[in-house]
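re: ur msg from earlier - yeah i can do the RRO complex, just paste it... oh wait u already did. ok heres what im feeding in:
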Amino acid sequence: MDRLSTEVAGVRFRNPFLLASGIWGETGAALARAHRDGAGGVVTKSIGSATREGYPNPTVEQLGSWGLLNAMGLPNPGMEHYAAEIALARKEGATVVGSIFGGDAKEFATLARAMEQTGVVALELNLSCPHAKGYGSEIGRDPAIVTEVVRAVKQAVRLPVWAKLTPNTHDIGALAEAAEQAGADAISAINTVRGLAIDPETMRPVLAHGFGGLSGPAIKPIGLACVWQIYDRVKVPIVGIGGISTPEDAFEYLIAGASAVEVGTALSAGGDALFGTLSAGLERLLEHHGFSTLAEAVGASHRVR
Ligand code: RRO
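and the outut:
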């Protein structure tokens, strides 16, 4: 399946379907499983400086066919304990991207150095979790902080750096430009969209934390619009995320400007076969449209305008 191989900022993936951060990514065994199931690469759960339990339950709510609302609360074992999980996934042959979150540039840089030691191929900076006090989109919606964080991480490591941006802003293009100017090697877009579910019976928010992040089919048009806009504003490659569950979804992201995509929520419906189905379907779509390489398809929709 050579036609499917893709490159993001100097790193080659066997196909463009990466396991999204936060889905299955807390253990090395789960990352390895995604690799065995056919993922082109795997992105870890976002890892912080210390062990975090996350928010109390309920943390996830299925919203019919729209997708999932989650407020997990950045649960993770902490960087010190996570290296062994990455080692396990790498031993099985997985191409691992390390996701990290911090509260400021200094914490991001320290984590980036530690994550680099684990042998990951790139770093994804979580500047976009939609509901965490002092983290994610609270800092990542400010272009000046995005600049500060990306610059500090770039000075700390040699690995390619992907900035994962939030759609919960009026101008994601400005965030992408800030990231690129600070040295980001790629942009990941998007994280979940801030949302709320209320139980009409109890009249309370359904999730214990209150606000959550919406993922799944409902956010695909939002993710596509963000990728499209970012492609018009920066030169670095884009990793598209949001509501991808079919080969057609992925193809739309590629022609909107993404060089790879991440798949998350669709896997929660029991996804062992999904990576294989996506790859086989995308291969057919590329052939049907006369693209002999995936790279030819990237951004193609902008050129037929
Ligand atoms: O852990 C979470 O609650 C979480 C994270 Br870190 C994120 O980046 N996005 C999201 O929807 N949930």
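cool cool. The mean pLDDT is 96. ping me if u need the other ligands too
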